[in-house]
Amino acid sequence: MTATHPEPAGNAEAQGRAPSSVAYDDWIVKAFVVATLLWGFVGMLVGIYIALELPFWPANLDSPYLTFGRLRPLHTNAVIFAFAGNVLFAGIYHSMQRLLKTRMFSDALSQIHFWGWQLIIVAAAITLPLGLSQGKEYAELIWPLDIAVAVIWVVFAVNFFGTIAIRKVKHLYVAIWFYMSMVLTIAMLHIVNNLALPATLTRSYPIYAGMTDALVQWWYGHNAVGFLLTTPFLGLMYYYVPKTANRPIFSYRLSIIHFWALVFLYIWTGPHHLLWSGLPDWVQTLGVVFSVMLWAPSWAGMLNGLLTLRGAWTRLRNDPMIKLWVVALTFYGMSTFEGPLMSIRDVNSLSHFTDWTVGHTHSGALGWVGMAAFASVYYIVPDIWKKKLYSRDLINLHFWLGTAGIVLYVVPLWVAGITQGLMWKDLDASGNLVHGAFMDTVRVLLPLYWLRLLGGLLYLGGLVVMIYNLVKTVRGEAAEPAAVPAPAK
Amino acid sequence: MSVESPYAWHRRLFEGRAAVFAITATLVAAIGGIAEIAPMYSATLGPKPMEGITPYTPLELAGRDIYVREGCYNCHSQWVRPFRDEVKRYGEWSRAGEYAYDRPFQLGSRRIGPDLMRVGVRLPSVAWHYEHLMDPRKVVPQSIMPRYPWLAEDRLDPEDVRASVATMKKLGVPYSDEDVAKVPEQIAEQGGAIANSLKESGIEVAPDSEMVAMIAYLTRLGVEGHQALAAREGDK
Ligand code: HEM
Ligand code: HEM
Fold first, then answer.
1. Mean of the pLDDT values across residues B100-107?
2. How many CB pairs (< 8 A) connect A and B?
3. Structure confidence by residue, pLDDT tens digits, A153-180
């Protein structure tokens, strides 16, 4: 067993025990945790606002700065790069120091990374409502900010690989592989997709035109999903699930196979965003085939996570953190089943352009990314502030608010997407459109949009409960060393 | 270690050697992108401008930049798929070559509102667009689109537009030096024509307003492609 399983029982445990001489940099972890909660709140609040604008147009307030078209990119950038980004940095700085038994390579670089990233977020929150945008989804930030992102990312990369270079543990644990794939691949995607010629200080035009620009953008777009919202979160899963459940990873073999499969397959799938477009057929076909193949390694990762918890099933009933992970992994499995399905040409002909896509997005975003983020932060805060968690009941409440919120968000949008998709396609016997007026296909969605808004409110309510719980924790009593599941440092 | 793990090679080759691991992972991740994107630049495999498609005029380009600024792509696609219902609703399906001068591309991924690929064919009236942008519900009852009244107030800066045209030229869009030199005149000419035809409908708006630029852009969308495809049809 030890030989086939190089990360033996309590792998993360064993790796987390630092020589007493190592002083980890916990300040940086705390800073990223605070930023996660702050920007998570702001980003989701903007999500709620745009969710209101759809069924209730007067909420646009006739203000250029508040129209749906300008705020939607603010929402997506805030939740992806500020909420998900900061929680990944928190988790990476927390876990990698412990896994490699060393302090970060350079405190100065950590600080530059933190403040640089927050400044970029503030700049984004100002420029996007001003309408300063490149007009490419998830790559809206204007060129000076793109350069800032690239510079800060390099700072992070140097710090990351520097830390690996000075590590006290010879072999890299699987969580580190996944982090590494994010650091490298996101740099490549960001730089290539944003190559552009500036016309003014705030405006530039891409070096790619038309369909080529579209292809490059969705190569970037889908892999932002792949290498920001998926692989590094799997890295968090590989560290925090064993920690939380106090059990070793189910299968080392599975982690090797699905790691390489994800890294190889993900990149090809971008064209599933451009099915039935002018993109050459063979490229579309590659996108479909690789998307369908991606199902297998995605589920391998989900199973590896869930089966790690298999010995902890008895705790499932009363340990809310395990419940959070179970929901996160389940939604990971659901959205990675749904995604390949939506990549099939005939399914996509119905789902594309509709709310089905948005439902899929949020089953991944709220279910997987959000829940995994929360579960990780619930582990990190007591650990680094060395406090006892204020209330498990409140985590339980958060769990239920979050889960109910996801269901109320996703189910109405499935209904909305399929309904509208079918209405668009509806032809009568003589081949005429049954719903010739586009507005007829919008009106039916409005009640479902209200339900989604309610789902969003519940989900955000869960986050507020979390923030309260964590503030109380930090202000509360110190942890008794024995009561903490984490090893003594 | 008692038994050699079947995965000992992975441990030896990668997990203990970060540089090898990192470089291999990067190469493995790069393959798919190179395989799909590089052929776009080959003369036979890549998209080529469709015959009959001309670059945007300076005023239309300014309008397009406003379209991007307002984030219209968050609700509107510019992409008709080759299905019976879409062709009925929106017109000819989109060909790759029609997008040749689109930087950034604006295909979009959502249809909260209808497709705009051929809105210039479907809705050629400048007055309709003026009314619609000022208050969508005036022409489309119960529309959920925001109002854009500031477009009628805000003015274009011809020098700013010139910077765009010059940049596009550097990127290979076939504008002549004269085109770049005459940006202000071209804006005044095309804007004046649109403002005049709005006046005939009793609408007063400055020829160099953002509204006029936006209308210039919208009413040209898809028109050339539609004509070129109709001509192709006629040849048969
Ligand atoms: C309170 C929670 C949230 C609410 C109410 C909310 C609401 C919305 C709304 C209304 C849209 C526009 C949908 C449309 O185009 O019709 C949207 C888009 C989006 N949101 Fe959220 N959101 C929330 C949380 C999140 C989170 C946590 C993430 C990511 C981690 C996220 C990622 C996205 C993305 C990627 C899109 C673009 C989707 C697409 O293009 O299909 N959202 N959200
Ligand atoms: C095997 C994995 C997956 C595959 C094959 C896949 C496939 C797809 C497909 C086909 C679409 C619709 C494209 C369109 O019609 O426009 C889509 C949209 C999307 N997916 Fe996934 N998906 C996967 C997993 C995920 C996960 C786990 C997340 C989130 C964490 C996610 C986030 C998104 C987002 C944000 C969009 C909307 C993009 C946009 O239009 O702006 N996907 N995905």
1. 97
2. 271
3. 999 999 999 999 999 999 999 999 999 9
A358 lines ligand 1 (CB under 6 A): yes
Contact A73 CB / ligand 2 (< 6 Å): no
Closest CB from A69, A188, A192 relative to B75: A69
The model's pLDDT over B77-102, given as tens digits with 9 standing for 90+, comes to: 999 999 999 999 999 999 999 999 99
- When pLDDT is cut at 50, 70 and 90, the band that residue A403 belongs to is very high
The CA-atom distances, in angstroms, between A355 and each of A114, B20, B48 are 35, 43, 33
- CA A488/CA A483 separation, integer angstroms: 11
Q: What is the DSSP annotation of A393-424?
A: HHHHHHHHHHHHHHHHHHHHHHHHHHHHHHHH
Interchain proximity B22–A184, CB inside 8 Å? yes
Q: What is the pLDDT of residue A488?
A: 37
Encode pLDDT of A284-319 as tens digits: 999 999 999 999 999 999 999 999 998 778 888 888
Give the nearest chain A residue to B160 (CA atoms): A200
Q: How many helices (H) and strands (E) does chain A have?
A: 19, 2
Q: Output the CA A339–ligand 2 centroid distance in Å.
A: 5
Task: Read off the pLDDT of each residue in A437-457 and give the average, rounded to a whole number.
Answer: 98
Whether A357 is in the pocket of ligand 1, judged by its Cβ within 6 Å, is yes
What token pair was written down for A458?
A: 């519940």
Contacts of A199 (CB under 8 A, 6+ apart): A205, B163, B164, B166, B167
Q: In this structure, are residues A341 and A298 in contact, taking their beta carbons and an 8 Å threshold?
A: no
Select the residue of A62, A184, A268 nearest B25 (Cβ to Cβ).
Answer: A184
Please report the atom of ligand 2 found closest to the CA of residue A294. Answer: 1
CA B34: distance to chain centroid?
Answer: 24
pLDDT greater than 60 at residue A197: yes
pTM assigned to the model: 0.95
Give the residue from B14, B48, B74 with the most A CB atoms within 10 Å of its CB, the best one to mutate. B74
Domains of chain A from N-terminus onward: 27-475 (1.20.210.10)
Query: What are the chain B neighbours of A260 within 8 Å (beta carbons)?
Result: 28
Q: Is A309 in the pocket of ligand 1 (CB under 6 A)?
A: no
| Whether pLDDT at B158 is above 70 | yes
Q: Is A484:A382 a contact under the CB 8 Å cutoff?
A: yes
Q: What is the DSSP string of A83-112?
A: IIHHHHHHHHHHHHHHHHTS--S-HHHHHH
Q: How is residue A206 annotated by DSSP? A: E
